[in-house]
Amino acid sequence: MASTVWKGYITFGLITIPVRLFAAARTERVSFHQIHQVCGTRIKQQIYCPHCERVVERSELVKGYEAEKDRYVIVNDEEIKSIAPASSDNMEILEFVRAEGIDPIYFDASYFMVPEEAGKKAYHLLLETMRKSGYSAIAQIAMHQREYTVVVRPHADGLLLHTMFYPEEVREVPEFRRDESVSVKPQEVALAEKLVEGLASDFDPSKYHDDYQQRLLKMVEAKREGQPVQGEAPKKRAPVIDLMQALQKSLGELPRKPAARAAQEETSAPPATKKSAQPRRRTATG
To answer: What is the number of other CB atoms lying within 10 angstroms of the CB of residue 186?
Structure first.
């Protein structure tokens, strides 16, 4: 059974809905431990106090904030709990916004929002209202010793919650900017659009996998069985000198679409993009 990340209420107006949050996604990767090469034993990390010159137990540890160099303000859990904001157990909707108006760069972690038994009807009322209106909700929630601005949006199975970065947390990189001195030709854009259309498809996350993690596991298994490790030959990429030539070659290497799909795309194309089958009539002059 999944563990609850947060438990409390979501409110809008005078409606209060008891809910729980569950982590919607987690990163999975092959983990390696630190091993002592001499004897093959896994290393244990210990907490060491350089002032007392001894290893200390976790029961001896407290939280400290570095106010000055090597000077700390000690804070205990009760003091932290005493200043917790109302959003620690009450998530109030501040406003509703259009989802397409939120830049995805602000999204952080994702959570499933599940109603308690007593709040199911109000939960589904909010869910259906947001579905029909096309709005997402902006709220605030405190967890993990910080207060987040979050966006709550409707999903096929219920409400999803995404914590968001604050504007000051989104980095400004001087190198990331549009270079107005660079221009592309209309012919290059037209060919690039054809390349995009040739690679276009409906998003299906099940098609994508972390091949690198699979290779790591195969490497470990090969070493375990005493077999040689087969490396991957790096791909050689020639520098692009002529964009038009590279685009034309790329179009020629596109996989052919099935006839049924190609016909479907043709019939679903906007009328403005279709060429008329009727020949143009010439008007007599003079």
So the answer is: 7
